[in-house]
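input
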Amino acid sequence: MTATIPLSAPVRGRPAPAAVLELLKPVTWFAPMWAFSCGLVSASSAGEAGWLTIATGVLLCGPLVCGTSQAVNDWFDRHVDAINEPNRPIPSGRIPGQWGLIIAIVWTCVSLSVAAMLGRFVFAPALFGMACAWAYSAPPLRLKRNGWVGNMAVGMCYEGLPWITGAAVMSGGLPTWQVFTLAGLYSLGAHGIMTLNDFKSIEGDRKMGLDSLPAVMGEEVAALLACVVMAGPQVIVITLLSLWGHPAYAAGVAILLAVQIVLMRRLLAAPCERAPWYNATGTTLYVLGMLVSAFALKAGVGS
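output
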């Protein structure tokens, strides 16, 4: 089933720079750039990268890899967006013709080239992230058709891989197993964040046969699941930080989680209306917990 794409601009010609920037969605760059910063902090005792290397890593995780994923997603979602958000650059015609696909391909090549410049321990997660970005949106895999698998892929690319990349940039080598552990746990919790993000497109997902969790499970059940998935990994992080000899940092994450739980109760009373509100409040506390955990690793395990 497809939908007619409304065009407010001719399909010939080149897109304006402002439309290309909108396609790359700068507002989405914050999450991976934040996770990259957590990676830098968590490995800062293991090495000292130069400012140019760090700036290049930030560029890689935000405007390049994340920007590419947005372009890929918008190209392959153009029919869904014609229903949910027809004013986006592609369905509105401000990115005409095949330009959406061209931008996605070119940005992929640029991203991988920059990652290769930063070394193999940065190139490997960048390559995996690019593969996930295309698999998430593009056929035949189109992982986003399944809310369980698709949300896990996005959570990993937004939180875990940038964290690992930041640690690799700072240390100049393979990050520690503790870095991989915390990055993995916060990636798992981000699955819940992605579920809440899907609330904005329930109508279009149902029409286009995309099995996002809110569309399949219903708003109340999906919201409850998202809360549990976000809270569970944080409980494990708190436990690990305590076992690793950092009770103060564990307490900091615990306090942030306790406030999240208070906010979750309000979210669950009206999930459809309050999902955007929670993503602006509870999710902020979630990522602050990431930074607290990163400082714990900086202090050293068992110190």
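quick obs: The radius of gyration is 19 Å.
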